[in-house]
Structures are given as C-alpha cells and as structure tokens.
Design goal:
five-stranded mixed beta sheet, 8 helices, 12 strands, 22% strand
Length: 257
C-alpha cells in the first residue's frame, strides 16, 4: 500500500436519507483508506468507499459502545499514520453535538492533518421533511438547538432558559429526559404549546407524534416512539404544511425514463 500523508477528514453524513449528502462528502469517502463510521449513518453511504478501504464501526447501539471516545481518538491517529487518509463519518453535521472538533484537535496534536466536510443537520432537515418550518413570519423569529442530555446524563440547564423564549426549540438526544423537559415548559405557562417528536427522521422508518407540552408524553407512550428522535417545541408545529414526498416523485421519474 502506497503511504500517503496522515490526514483526517471529519465528514457529516446528513440526517439519514442517503441522498442528503454533499458531493464533497462522497469524494472524501471515495478517497479514504480507512472509514470509521457511527451507528446513525446510513450504511448505504459506505458503497461510495473504495473496495480496498478498511471499514470500522465505532458507534453505539442501545447504550453499548463499540469503542469509547478515547479509543476512537487513538484509532484515528494510528490508522492515519499506518494507512494515510482516515474519514470519520458521523451522522448529521459533525460540529453539531457530534464531537467532530474534539477528534480533529486530538489528531492534529499528533501531526495528523485535519479537514471537515459539513453535513446537513438533523435539527433542520428532520422538521423540514415533515413540513415544519423552524421560523415563520408571525410564529417564530428564531430557533434554539439544544442537547437534551449533558455528558453527566442530566437535563441541559439551557432548556429552562429556552422555555422562557418565544423561539422554536429543537432538542436533540432528549427522549430520556422528556418528562423533565416538558415540565420546564409547563412551569413557563406553556402547557398548550404544540410539540412534535420525529423518530428516524428522513428515513423510510420515519414516525411522528404530535401533541402539546401537556400531552406529548402520553402521545409518545401511545405511539411507542423512542430514540433516535428529535423534539420540536413551538407554534410552528401548528404551521406544518402538507408535502408531497420528493422521494416518490424521483422514483416515479426514474421509472418513467
């Protein structure tokens, strides 16, 4: 194997639909000698990899880690020095709760060149696929994107602050703290504020539950919604527009060619 300069490219794989990935990301995947990929990426994207590339799953499923973060950092450096170009393929955008910056900083400390290819964040794409605008004149002038659970496994302190705002609030990794999160909004007198929870967004397994701050926990139980899911709180949920599936249109176009 021809040795190349050790380098790391952190690549955003998008929210789940394999077509929601950039051309630059596809080129990076195709040029990699090693690809370290997470559980939330669509594995169809690995078809863009070179047949000679080493593919290593480093994600977690149901709380079980294939590798701890420290081990992933070390693996990036080791493979970059032994093989050349390592792609770290991460769901959504790697700089939105993706730890991409941490991995780049670690690799650069050991002389590994670093690059990033941004991805489409689930915080924006998943509501859009369900026709929910995060901002809309007369409904919401801004939006927050917050992690529901901190590294200490506690509810983020930013949620009670966001609950005071008129902004749309998008919460990632918040399902395990859903009752606490909704309690924070109820304390601000927002029991009737609309809430949407979208599981497996932008994929064929996408599911959605609609309710209010007061009722959404019951909706989740009835619909048996679980991770991976995002929570959207705000009046824009009521502004949801009907969309014709672009995936269906593309498929029909292909069949008619």
């Amino acid at each position: 194997m021809k040795k190349t300069t050790p380098r790391l490219t952190v690549v955003g794989a998008g929210p789940g639909d394999p077509e929601l990935i950039t051309l630059k990301a596809v080129k990076a995947i195709g040029s990699a000698q090693v690809i370290l990929y997470d559980a939330l990426i669509n594995e169809a994207l690995l078809e863009y990899a070179s047949p000679e590339a080493e593919l290593i799953f480093v994600g977690k499923r149901k709380g079980c880690y294939a590798y701890q973060q420290e081990q992933i950092n070390e693996l990036i450096v080791a493979r970059a020095k032994s093989h050349g170009h390592v792609v770290r393929l991460k769901g959504g955008d790697p700089f939105v709760f993706g730890r991409g910056a941490e991995e780049l900083e670690y690799a650069q400390r050991f002389g590994v060149e670093g690059n990033v290819v941004p991805g489409i964040s689930s915080a924006i794409a998943v509501p859009a696929y369900q026709g929910i605008p995060l901002t809309k004149r007369g409904s919401s002038e801004s939006f927050w994107v917050i992690t529901g659970t901190t590294k200490d496994h506690k509810m983020s302190n930013d949620i009670p602050i966001a609950a005071k705002s008129t902004a749309t609030v998008v919460i990632l990794m918040g399902m395990s703290k859903l009752p606490q999160i909704m309690e924070a909004f109820q304390k601000e007198g927002k029991a009737e504020t609309p809430v949407a929870i979208i599981q497996n967004g932008t994929t064929k397994d996408e599911r959605i539950g609609i309710g209010t701050v007061a009722s959404i926990c019951e909706v989740v139980e009835q619909e048996q919604l679980s991770n991976p899911a995002i929570i959207i709180v705000g009046e824009v949920v009521n502004d949801r527009v009907h969309l014709t599936s672009i995936r269906q249109e593309i498929q029909q176009f292909s069949e008619n060619k």
